[in-house]
Amino acid sequence: MSVQILNLNPCYDHWVIISNVPKTPNVLRGDYVVKLVDGKGLNIARVFNLLGFHDYLCINVLGGDVGKIISSKCREENIKTAEFWINDENRINTAVVYEYEKRMLMVNEPGPVMTPDEIERFIQYLDSVIEEKSTLVISGSAPRGFTANNMSRIAQMAKERGCRLMIDISGEWLRKLVKFEPEMVKVNADEFKIAFELSNLSVEKLYEVKKRYKINVLCVTLGKDGSITLTEDRVFHAKPKLVHCDFSVGSGDSFFAGYLYKEAMGKSMEERLIFATACGMANTLKYGAAIFDLKDLNEQLPLVEIAEERL
Fold it and tell me: Is the pTM of this model over 0.90?
């Protein structure tokens, strides 16, 4: 597989849609529910499928009855997965969408705990799965018990095999993984500022981090304001002309998937970022993470502005 995706903390999401003001105080009754498998890696895989790109493998850590549901739903969606099973139960996350107020509340369970033995066996398992000179996407959180040092061992293994690291992660894990000279770091602005203790995101500050850790492509997403991307000698600002709504869960993953897809196709940086931004915009049109169709996507492409300047 040319793209291998680590999805260490998958979940099963319930989006409960409340269309009108509840008649009974403190009791919420949904008008309908959207159920889907989630986790950053699975969201990327779902977008890959939509785009007709199948040269990937999503590596899931699964456990318990919820893990069985995730496994079954992945098969239903024809998501290409490899599965490593643990004893503890995967998480169920709930999004309560107050449609009448155009707002939502996301409730995330803490998720499973991996034992030291399970972690060791998982790393050994990856040793048999990660292919030479492939692209390894490390995206999202990990089960409790799984440390930044464990993640570093995986990154080291991948680098020794000539893999390209594409990273979308936060906090201590991000600070650890940038030391392995990743091909790309895609992270949202708040996470980036926290990880590197920055008060602002000037081009100078971003370039300093990029240069220090020898990151080939650094992309910081800015929500409604699009993204800023630094390459070897260029800065790209991509921005949507129109923001449809605030239901943005999964937009960052959709953006990343769109970028990875166009990169695999050998497209220019400008084409990658326009397409990635359109994927993130299309994600806001329907409930659920990485849920949109090609019509949604194609309608967004003309609505992306991009500017380029020299570093």
Answer: yes
